[in-house]
Amino acid sequence: MQRRHRRAHAGIWTGLGVALPLLLAIIFASAPKLAPDAPAIRLDAKTTGGQP
Amino acid sequence: MSVSYKPVIWNRTKMIYDAVLLAGIGIYILVFLKAGPLLSAALRDVDVPTQRMRAFGSLALLMLTVVLAIGPLARIDTRFIPLLYNRRHFGVMTAIVAATHAYYVLGWYFSYSPTPQLTALFTSNSSFTSIAGFPFELFGVFALIILAVLAVTSHDFWLSFLTPPLWKAFHMSVYFAYAAIILHVALGALLDRRDLALALLLVGGLALLSTLHLIAGRREVGADAAASAKAPEEPWIVVGDLSEIAEGRAIIGASPGGERIAVFRSKGGLSAVSNVCSHQNGPIGEGKVVIGFITCPWHGYQYRLEDGCSPPPFRERIRKYRVQLRGSTVLVDPEPLPLGTKLEPFPIPAEMRAVSASAAKQGEA
What we know:
The structure holds 2 protein chains of 2 kinds.
Chain A: H1 2-29
Chain B: H1 12-34, H2 36-39, H3 41-44, H4 48-76, H5 81-84, H6 87-109, H7 117-123, H8 137-152, H9 156-162, H10 164-171, H11 174-193, H12 196-226, E1 237-241, E2 250-254, E3 260-266, E4 269-274, E5 288-290, E6 293-295, E7 302-304, E8 320-321, E9 323-326, E10 329-332, E11 346-347, H13 350-364
Helix pairs in contact in B: 1-4, 4-6, 4-11, 4-12, 6-8, 8-11, 9-10, 11-12
């Protein structure tokens, strides 16, 4: 029992340690970005960088 | 220990543990709500319900990270063992904090929804084909359901009803709740507002937990391999030297199959028992003999030296093993005896007691 429990622990955390960083990388890589030719004046203030 | 079911016993240590926990939760929420807007423009520009939502959400993530770190920390360094003592209350508090976060979310975003709040929660975002736009709420709901079920079944009644092996396996689902929370936070709060502190908590916590669990796992594998030397008198194994065992303490060996065996020394005798407590698989060999009983370091469950049974009226039992001395070398037969078998401690010869006891004391000092 003890050994199976330890193996299950090691398996789960190896899986999480590999899968979660990969998923995080995919999530942030797929985040929508502004097109290079996007207009400088935008309604969503947080991406305008202090436009008047 | 339990006869068949026994309610949780409150004691001073548990009350202090819970008081510290509650104080920590209160301080975090107060600091987040009062000092947060002064320090961060992102918090200053949002309304109070949203601040509360973020306060309880970030606290739930922090608490879950801490509660998952306690296990491996206690395996790596025994100074963390006291944190294990009341870890279940820590887990229940985490579930309550997470539920409070969900309560504020439902109350704020769906208060004026013409459809019922829960229906609105599940139907307002249906971007299942998008990665960044995936309905992150579902991960939060999934994690909250697991945390709630684990909190409800954390009581000793369920431990007794389900049996410890099943209960332990069932409660390992908390790791999947943690994975769901990582995705919930990343797809929700982090994509929405690039919050550096939250990103550090999320990524740093994940790195810390993965590292701690894998280090603890490697040490366990190493301990198994190091302690399995076979004696010339097969199938007996060499567990260590008598001088390594302090009075009232144990050394730990492992059978060729990997099961740990603890050899306790008490009042001139040696007793070998399974290293796995029948309560929650605690490492009995890291405990000590208290008033004549082997006592688990995790929750204080006790067993008699001669037969591995808890004293009446309790019913827990652990397996005993045959033990003997060859010179000062401690040998154990890795074949366990049937549960409840009475086997008196192996007497340490008188001429070896004084020498080995002083060596053990020097080793401790």
